[in-house]
TrEMBL record, chain A:
An MF annotation (GO) of this entry: ABC-type putrescine transporter activity
Family, similarity comment: Belongs to the ABC transporter superfamily. Spermidine/putrescine importer (TC 3.A.1.11.1) family.
Protein name listed in UniProt: Spermidine/putrescine import ATP-binding protein PotA
GO cellular component: ATP-binding cassette (ABC) transporter complex
Domain ABC transporter: start-end pairs: 14-242
Keywords of the record: ATP-binding, Cell membrane, Membrane, Nucleotide-binding, Translocase, Transport
SMART domains per record: AAA (SM00382)
PROSITE patterns per UniProt: ABC_TRANSPORTER_1, ABC_TRANSPORTER_2
Native species: Streptomyces luteolifulvus
From TrEMBL, chain B:
ABC transmembrane type-1 domain: residues covered: 67-257
Topology with respect to the bilayer: Multi-pass membrane protein
Recorded family membership: Belongs to the binding-protein-dependent transport system permease family. CysTW subfamily.
Keyword entries, A-Z: Cell membrane, Membrane, Transmembrane, Transmembrane helix, Transport
GO biological process annotation, one example: transmembrane transport
Subcellular location(s) per record: Cell membrane
Any one Gene Ontology cellular component term annotated for this protein: plasma membrane
Protein name, UniProt field: ABC transporter permease
Transmembrane stretches, start-end: 12-35, 73-93, 105-127, 133-154, 183-204, 234-257
Pfam families: BPD_transp_1
Source species: Streptomyces luteolifulvus
Database matches in InterPro entries: Bact_Polyamine_Transport, MetI-like, MetI-like_sf
């Protein structure tokens, strides 16, 4: 039954072209193009109501797209009912059949396809998810983590071309979720099936997926590897939704061999590599300058002279600091931004770096990224996510 | 003082036993008097123990015939009302259609309407239609008033069903029919069974509506009523006791089965 997957096989590609979904006047998903290559672990990441689950359900066939097409490999499945698609889903609440035991739940898909001898396959699959002992129990007799594994086994046993996972770890506690993330990743590597995973947890997406598509308000904001998204965000939403970013408004001063020199309020000049700026840069135009908190070093103002040349610097005063073990998180009040965040590793702690101290923040210009200044600084932060959610309800 | 404490500790049990006694006493009387050997035609005073009636339960003219009529009507009314009621319940929960609100409230009319009024109106209806009163008119009437009970029971169950279960079934290659037979129906089954049992009991028991619309057909309740004018044969108690026993046995059997199932799983 198991088809050997090789890198040139495109049977498990998922191709969405111009796919959209509208409910009355509400647009859940704007026309969107997406290709998920065979054998990859792909995550759709976004706040609730951003259209990620609707997109997933359109691939599963549980939702009919308002426009566009869905291709699995070379087969168009846009109008096929779910039971005719070589795709299986792990539902958010698992949706295990309460009247059937674990064995029968897992065997369900095989039996519906008319396969008579299911015993061996089901037992192997239950062993894969380490539930061999529980075969004759009913779903409600299992713990949340076990139910989750049954849901995965029930879908995987059919060797779908694509496995869809709709927030599969949402109901588990933190520790179990970590464990299941690794478990799912292991299973995916083992079976080599394309996984499309929907989640609102950025850490989960980054841990598991090869490629992440960040969705916001029915659109894909950015698509890339977790590192790429984190290091080179293209929009303020991505910059804020994935981790934390410090964003400063600045004006383009000049350009010199691949670098853009910017003027930012009282901070003097900042340097930004042109390649890391996603916004149009004309001299005198405005861009948002971003830098991640852990890229920044803190030096006490008394030793400002010792900072090497060529680093971006901003002066400020420590407003708050919190020690969280592996790092200390500082909030710096600076002329360009009242709440500049800096995470410093606790290697050699300078005892003078306490709230009230005057400091210089400095970082390698290569860690700076530039964004279009025409967007909201707060997109993708906790505050605005709350608003999105209310709007979606 | 010790007695007061004992009373405090056992009050719940005592209250339970008293209530149970209150509920069961009539059944006990029916059972005891099925072993009576009355002197006259009326089985109202205890005379002496006898199993004569149990040995010859159909010894009274026409009684077992009426019993058979009642069982047949109850069976078909149950089948009809359960089928229709289940479909109505699914339609009301799952679909949005023009008269949904109206159907939702009108379906309870037979429950709220005084039975005797409905019986009289039904008779008017049947007479105006020129229908021949008998088995079929009784059956139609019974299906009608059982429907609302079935709908209520099934609706509650269907409403609490997670629609994702059916989506999961479809996702696992079950077509619409398979999804219904393998997932929807088994999960709704307890509600449907409850509705069916209720329908059977209501139909078997019904006197007022049946009496109006029976024509020359005689059901068991009608037979009991009729014979009560002229004398009550002990066999009536025998049938009553037997029905009670069957019901108790069914309940016990289902308890034993579910207990055993739970123990196997645990």
């Amino acid at each position: 039954m198991i088809t050997v997957t090789n890198k040139t096989d495109h049977g498990g590609d998922v191709r969405l072209t111009g796919i959209s979904k509208t409910y009355g006047s509400f647009t859940a998903v704007h026309p969107l193009d997406l290709t998920v290559p065979q054998g990859s672990f792909f995550a759709l990441l976004g706040a609730s109501g951003c259209g990620k689950t609707t997109t997933l359900r359109m691939i599963a066939g549980l939702e009919e797209p308002s426009s566009g097409t869905v291709f699995l490999g070379d087969q168009e499945v846009t109008h096929l009912p779910p039971y005719k698609r070589p795709v299986n889903t792990v539902f958010q609440s698992y949706a295990l059949f309460p009247h059937l035991d674990i064995f029968e739940n897992v065997a369900f898909g095989l039996r519906r396809r008319g396969i008579k001898s299911v015993k061996k396959q089901v037992e192997d699959m239950l062993d894969l998810v380490q539930l061999g002992e529980q075969a004759r129990k009913k779903p409600h007799q299992l713990s949340g983590g076990q139910q989750q594994r049954v849901a995965v086994a029930r879908a995987l046993i059919n060797h779908p071309k694509v496995l869809l996972l709709d927030e599969p770890l949402g109901a588990l506690d933190l520790k179990l979720r970590r464990q299941m993330q690794l478990e799912l990743k292991r299973i995916q590597t083992e079976v080599g099936i394309t996984f499309v995973h929907v989640t609102h947890d950025q850490e989960e997406a980054m841990t598991m997926a090869d490629t992440v598509a960040v969705m916001n308000a029915g659109r894909v904001e950015q698509l890339g590897s977790p590192t790429d998204l984190y290091e080179n965000p293209q929009t303020t939403f991505v910059a804020n939704f994935l981790g934390t970013s410090n964003l400063i408004e600045a004006e383009v001063d000049s350009k010199t061999n691949g670098d853009i020199v910017l003027k930012a309020g009282g901070a003097g000049k900042l340097v930004l590599p042109e390649a890391r700026c996603s916004a149009p840069t004309t001299t005198g135009g405005r861009v948002l300058v971003g830098v991640r908190p852990e890229k920044i070093s803190l030096t006490h103002a008394d030793e400002a002279g010792e900072i090497p040349e060529g680093r971006n610097r901003i002066t400020g005063r420590i407003a708050d600091s919190s020690f969280i073990g592996v790092s200390t998180q500082y909030v710096i009040d600076s002329p360009v931004c009242p709440e500049f965040e800096v995470y410093a590793q606790n290697i050699d702690r300078d005892a003078r770096l306490v709230p009230g101290a005057e400091v210089v923040l400095h970082w390698n210009p290569a860690h700076t990224f530039g964004l279009d200044a025409a967007q909201s600084l707060l997109a993708g932060t906790v505050d605005s996510a709350g608003i999105d959610e209310q709007a979606a309800v | 003082m010790a007695f007061v404490n004992w009373l405090k500790r056992n009050l719940v049990v005592i209250a339970g036993l008293v209530t149970l006694g209150y509920l069961l006493l009539p059944n006990v009387v029916v059972t005891v008097f099925s072993f009576n050997q009355p002197k006259g035609r009326f089985n109202y005073e205890w005379q002496q123990f006898s199993t004569a009636a149990w040995q010859d339960p159909c010894g009274v003219a026409d009684m077992c015939g009426s019993l058979s009529v009642s069982l047949q009507i109850a069976l078909w009314a149950t089948v009809g009302a359960t089928l229709l009621g289940t479909m109505i319940a699914f339609a009301l929960v799952r679909y949005r259609f023009r008269a949904r609100g109206a159907v939702n409230s009108l379906i309870f009319m037979p429950m709220a309407m005084p039975e005797v009024v409905m019986a009289a109106s039904l008779l008017t209806l049947f007479l105006n239609m020129g229908a021949q009163l008998g088995f079929w008119t009784i059956l139609i009437a019974h299906i009608m008033f059982c429907l609302s009970f079935v709908v209520t029971a099934v609706k509650a169950r269907v409403m609490s069903m997670d629609p994702r279960l059916e989506q999961a079934a479809q996702d696992l290659y079950a077509g619409p029919l398979q999804t219904f037979l393998r997932v929807t129906l088994p999960i709704a089954a307890p509600g449907i069974a409850a509705g069916a049992l209720l329908a059977f009991a209501l139909s078997f028991d019904d006197f007022i509506i049946t009496n109006f619309n029976a024509g020359s057909t005689v059901t068991f309740p009608m037979f009991v009523w009729g014979s009560a004018q002229r004398g009550t044969p002990v066999q009536i108690n025998v049938i009553g006791t037997a029905m009670f026993l069957v019901a108790v046995l069914l309940v016990l059997a289902s308890m034993v089965v579910s207990n055993r199932r739970n123990r196997q799983k645990a």
